[in-house]
Amino acid sequence: MCDEMMQGGLESLMILSDGESSRSICAENPSGEKEGGGKSTDGAAKKAARHLGRGWKISPYYEISPNVEYILADIEGEGQVESMWFGGNISRNYILRIYWDNETKPGVECPLPEFFAYGWQTDNSDPFKGPFSQISSIPVAVNPNKGLNCFWTMPFKKHCKVTIENRSSKAYICYYQINYCLKRVPENAGYFHAQYRQKCPVEYKEEFTILDGVSGKGKYVGTALFVGLNGAGNWWGEGELKFYIDGDKEFPTICGTGTEDYFGGSYDWEVDGKYQTYTTPFMGMHQILQSDGLYNHQQRFSMYRWHIMDPIRFSKDLRITIQDLGWAETGETYLARRDDFAVVAFWYEDHPALRTCTLPDKEEIRVI
């Protein structure tokens, strides 16, 4: 497995191949065309660059109006997205969608920050303020201040379209860069998918669905989970993740032993009476938002688990669930809880579009 990772990573840099061409799309080169960058004369920052002229950062961002789904990238041909960066103000009001090979339904659909495993973001008029939580993983990095970076490989065989929908009531200042390569894609390459779900709160004794409605052949590669606690209680993360693979009905093929165990931790993430955050190449519990003692009273957590070295393989179908489970006050009896859960599931499969829609409307999805 390490050899496979090297062949797709640092080792591959020394291989020189014909027919490959690097491209990049941003507000300074919206089509990604060769020699297409820095040509703008009428961009958003033309006033700031008026004494310098063309080629001096005249279009560093787009302004997306409320209730508009704006096309950031429209790529014809065969290739793969290799990285994406977003900056500026971010919130759950901005919806990222990626469409593969001219499908009418997206293969990726989720709030922008949650795609980068960064949860609980609301509109903030001052982008320099926190709170901020670092993520330092292999496919995703979030850097000061809320710089969102993605390195998932996302192949396409005919076409790729990337959009952002602004569901807020004010204009969204969108800084972004999408780096891709035009090249031949292997016939057996799967399409990248990411899908958001939430349940606020989880119903009593009802398992929360992370992923369902997936059929065909593929690999599950990651989970970003966001939990907001409702009510008092002891430790909340006893819930087991269950992977129902290729026709599993009542019982799963893969069953974990607890929430913090799945995300690579142990014993409640508790060190000397406090939660301990961490961010590593493949897993992390990087964000804890504590009560402010007034209006923002809910304790909230964000965590990620990337199945890069250990993808969950399926040939026919896949369903994933997690329990909302903690301890009663005595610490001797499990307690079925009713917390707020949200999740983004990440996987590759042989079908280019999501088969089911799970995105809540703009009122239901808001952080409250």
The global form is globular
Encode the helix/strand succession as letters: HEEEEEEHEEEEEEEEEEEHEEEEEEEEEE
Mean pLDDT: 93
Instruction: Please estimate the helix content.
Output: under 10%
Keywords:
27 strands; mainly beta; 8-stranded antiparallel β-sheet; 4% helix; 3 helices; 11-stranded mixed β-sheet; 368 residues; globular
Characterise this structure.
This protein has three helices and 27 strands. Helix content is 4%, strand content 41%. It is mostly beta strands and 368 residues long. Strands 3, 5, 6, 11, 13, 15, 20, 21, 22, 23 and 27 form an eleven-stranded mixed beta sheet that branches.
Write the layout of secondary structure elements.
Elements: H1 2-8, E1 21-26, E2 62-64, E3 68-76, E4 79-87, E5 94-100, E6 108-111, H2 112-115, E7 135-136, E8 140-143, E9 147-150, E10 154-156, E11 159-166, E12 172-182, E13 191-199, E14 208-215, E15 218-228, E16 241-245, E17 254-255, H3 259-262, E18 270-271, E19 274-275, E20 278-279, E21 283-289, E22 300-306, E23 312-314, E24 317-322, E25 325-327, E26 334-336, E27 340-349
Parallel strand pairs: 6-13
Antiparallel strand pairs: 1-12, 2-12, 3-11, 4-9, 4-10, 4-12, 5-6, 5-11, 7-8, 8-9, 13-27, 14-24, 15-22, 15-23, 15-27, 16-17, 16-24, 18-19, 20-21, 21-22, 25-26
